[in-house]
Each structure stands twice: as C-alpha cells, then as structure tokens.
TrEMBL record:
SUPFAM superfamilies: Acid phosphatase/Vanadium-dependent haloperoxidase (SSF48317). The keyword Signal applies. This is Vanadium-dependent haloperoxidase. Keywords: Signal. It comes from Chitinophaga filiformis (Myxococcus filiformis). Residues 1-23 form the signal peptide. Residues 409-505 form the Phosphatidic acid phosphatase type 2/haloperoxidase domain.
Length: 517
C-alpha cells in the first residue's frame, strides 16, 4: 500500500479551503447589485479602436429581417411563451446576468483561475509532472493557473470581449433594429429598457467570445463554460431583451472574433514558457558565471522554476524589444554590502511581526487556490466599475486595458526575474522564517509589486478620483511581500512598483488613443 504523504494532505485541504472561500467571495459580493442601466450607452463605440480586429466590420453580420415579418413575430411569441411559465430559477438567472455580462464572465474566469491555481505534486522519483493541454483531465490537470498564466488568461478573454463588442456596436448602429419591447409593447420586460439597438445581441456576443476563449484556456471545463453561455442567452430571451435572431447573430459574431484571438494565443510563445532541464540549468550557470549566488528552489524536493521563459511571450501593449527596454538594471550584488543590508532588513521585519502587518500579508497573499494577484486587481476594479455604471462596451474596454496591462507586467517581471536569477532573502539567510509561502521563482523583482504598480496606474487613469487610493493599495501590496519575508524592500518591491507603473503608462497611451474618450 502506498504511504500517505501528510504534507500533500495538508496542502490539498488548505487549497480546497482557499478555493471554497475564493468562490464564495466571487459569487457573494456582487449577488445583489442592481441591473445594469448605464446613463451613457456609448452608441459611438463601433468607431473605437480594437485590439486585433482590422476594423469593426472585419467579420460580416447579415442584415436582420424586418420586425413586421412573420418570422420576427414568431420570435416575439417565443418570448411570450417563456414568460408565461417562468420559474423562480429562471427569474434568478435573469437577475444574475442583468448585472452585466462583462462583470459575470470576469467572475466566472476568476473562479476557473482559482480552481486551477494548484501546483502539481511531485512524482515518486522526486521529479514534477507538467500539465498537458492535450490531455487536460489527466493529473496534473491543465492548466496550472499560476500568476503569469492567469494574467494571460484575463488578458485574452477581456481583449477579445472588447473587440467583439466594438464589432457588435458597429452593426447595432448600422442596422438599428429596435429591442423587442419597443416593437411589441405588450411584452413583459424583466431588464431595464434601453435605446440601444438589439441586433446583434451584446450578451450573445459576449457569450460566444468568452466561451470560446475560456474553452481554449481551460479545456477541461468546457461543459461548465458552455452551460454558462447557454444560461446567458436564455436569460436574454426570457427577459424580453432579445429575440432569437438577435442571439444567433451575436453568438456567431462573438465566436468569429474569438478565433482571431485563439490564433494569436497559439503563436504567442506561452506554450514554451515552462522550458526544460537544459534551460533551467543554463539560467543558474549564467548567474554563477557572473560571480553571483544563483536562485534555487527552496522546496523539498526542489521544484523546477515557474515558467522561466514567460518573459518571451508576445505582449499586447508593446513589442518584445520594449520588454527588454523596460527591464530594470541589476539588483545589488549577492556579495555586496547593499545586499547584506537588505537581507538584515528582511530578517528584522520577520522577527517583529504585528497584527496589522499580518493583516496586510494575508489580504494580499493571493497564493495557491486563489485567483492570483492579477485577479485580485480585477476584483478591485469590478467593484469600482459597478459604482460607475458603465455600459457593457465601456466595461469591456476598461477591463481589457487592465488585463492587458497585467499580462504585459507579468512578461516584463518574468523577463527580469530570469535575467538576473536573484536568490530569495531566506536563501541568503536561512534564519529568516517567512510569514507566508515562498514562491518558486527568483526574487528580483517582486511580482506583486509589478502587478500592483501597473494596475494602480491604469485604474487611476480610468477613475481619476480613485488614483490616490489605488496607489496606496499598490504600496501596501508591495510592502506585504517585504513584511512576509519573501522579498527585499528596496530592490524587489520598490523597483517592482516602478516597473509596473512604467508598464501601466503604455496602457494609458492606448486609452488616450482608442477613441473612447
């Protein structure tokens, strides 16, 4: 009988608890928000600048049938037949999706990230298995949704949603077909009425594009993802918001746009980011050749570094040469006085914890079983966007700006980490007892700090009155890693914030030129 590894049991129980708490948090905090009813429907959004589409009309959408045709009248009657026998579950479905589909799909995506944010356990021989996209349900399940993978997932889904909605708005204004409740005033309308044309359905566009992207990124969860898409489409019909042809045209458009992003994802070099044993050894050897102490895994047995070639993934906001240009200079030498001072500073912090510091460490931990630091910032943004009552297309635009910023921040951060291969504080001084888990990748620069600096910069631009609050959050997130003893303060956290802000500036440049302002 195989011996039970009690460390594994503890890890799994902790991860399951974290996932349960995370999912409850995702579903619970926005359950009772009102239905989306924006003051500005952004009718000109069909002219905004897309991310990948060559133009909003790149994928054709056929003209809709007349609202006086027998076919359209039959579709109106379909709505009435649904509404004649609505169940309480169907009413809840309408309420759930009417809060905003960009919001809901972002929550669903965060839920999937949390579910899959679990590192594989080692084989009997001490090696570690690598998840395979071609066999996603085999152990270890694909993906391991670690922070870089999660950042990339948020970016692809959000950017694809944004492009799909730009195209949808283009065709809405082109064809200008009124919503069903404006055609037939006897319909019972379960969502706020709007002057936005209904063809193609924006919800169906989002269902189509989000489902296709998420199936690529989380191939073992296709049934769950498709179920959510079907629920969203059904909710729009029974709410009286769209007829069947609105839905069909929207879903087809969303799927078409998704394929353009799928093609990009398949060629963005992320599939090779895990590297191999030769690459892992070369990184350490290169660092040692410079006379520095090379980072090493502090796990037992030693785990291969997390996605060491993620810095070579194709970014959204700039090109790969800019990634190198954004890379900061080297950290203090591992044999120098500056490094010694930084190590001593970390040792002092971990030797003098306080309740407030522990609160900060816990709040920003975002470890295994959570939706990661980029997802934490998506959650912060979502709560603030709810208060701003944006239109769906503006929601998509703002989420895309944030998500692309976080992905590109991950790329620059990981490029820096594996260029310098700098050891963690507790490697330099084994007497340092960290107050949270030690991530399995080099120290310089701090990922939390880079993600947070980037997020705070673009969110502060989107909601200027919250800019100071976002910057304070970013500073706190960065300090949480210093307090926990897993990062140096000045070099890892301070430089990480600067690098993140520099990445965020590229998102601001895009925002200023995308036509949405």
């Amino acid at each position: 009988m195989k011996k039970i590894n009690f460390y594994l049991v503890i890890v799994l129980v902790t991860a399951i608890s974290a996932i349960t708490a995370c999912n409850k948090d995702i579903e619970g905090r926005t359950d009772n928000i009102p239905a989306l009813s924006p003051a500005n429907i952004d009718l000109n959004a069909g002219t905004w600048k897309p991310v990948l589409l060559t133009s909003p009309s790149e994928f054709a959408v056929a003209a809709p049938g007349a609202t006086t045709s027998p076919d359209y009248i039959a579709q109106i009657n379909e709505i009435k037949s649904w509404q004649a026998n609505l169940t309480s579950e169907e009413k809840e479905l309408v309420k759930y999706w009417s809060a905003g589909a960009v919001l809901r799909w972002n929550e669903i995506l965060r839920e999937l990230v949390a579910k899959h944010n679990l590192p594989p356990y080692q084989n009997d021989d001490g090696t570690y298995p690598i998840p395979s996209a071609s066999n996603p349900l085999a152990y270890p399940q694909f993906p391991f949704a670690n922070p870089p993978y999660a950042a990339r997932a948020y970016a692809y889904v959000s950017a694809a949603q944004y492009d799909a909605l730009i195209a949808a708005w283009y065709y809405k204004t082109l064809y200008n077909r009124a919503a069903p409740y404006k055609v037939d005033s006897t319909l019972n309308v379960l969502i706020p009425k709007s002057d936005l044309p209904s063809y193609p359905s924006e919800d169906a566009v989002l269902a189509g594009v989000a489902a296709e992207m998420m199936k690529l990124l989380f191939p073992g969860d296709q049934e769950f993802i498709q179920q959510k898409a079907e629920e969203e489409k059904r909710a729009r019909i029974i709410a009286g918001a769209n007829v069947r042809s609105d839905i069909e045209a929207g879903e087809a458009l969303g799927k078409a746009v998704a394929q353009k992003f799928v093609a990009r994802a398949r060629g963005d070099r992320a599939g090779a980011a895990v590297g191999n044993a030769t690459v892992w050894k070369q990184l350490a050897d290169d660092c040692t050749a410079k006379g520095e102490i090379a980072w090493q895994s502090l796990e037992t047995p030693k785990r291969p570094p997390m996605l060491p070639l993620f810095g070579k993934v194709k970014p959204f906001l700039f090109d790969s040469l800019t990634v190198i240009a954004l890379r900061p200079g080297p950290p203090p030498s591992t044999s120098g006085a500056d490094m010694k001072a930084e190590v001593e500073e970390v040792y002092y912090q971990t030797s003098h914890p306080s309740r407030e510091k522990m609160r900060i460490i816990d709040f920003w931990a975002d470890g295994a079983g959570t939706y990661t630091p980029p997802g934490h910032w998506m959650s912060i943004a979502a709560e603030d966007f709810i208060r701003k009552n944006f239109s769906e297309v503006r929601w998509a635009r703002n989420m895309a700006l944030l998500a692309m910023t976080e992905m590109d921040a991950a790329i620059v951060c990981w490029d820096t980490k594996f260029t310098y291969f700098n050891p963690r504080p507790c490697q330099m001084n084994p007497n340092i007892k960290t107050l949270t888990g030690v991530p399995n990748f080099p120290s310089y620069i701090s990922g939390h700090s880079t993600f947070s600096g980037a997020a705070a910069r673009i969110l502060g631009y989107i909601i200027p009155e919250r800019a100071a609050a976002y910057e304070a959050m970013a500073e706190e997130a960065a300090m949480s890693r210093f307090y926990a003893g897993i990062h140096y303060n000045k070099s890892d956290c301070g430089v990480g914030l600067v690098v993140g802000r520099n990445v965020g500036n590229y998102a601001i440049q895009r925002a200023k030129s995308d036509g949405a302002e």
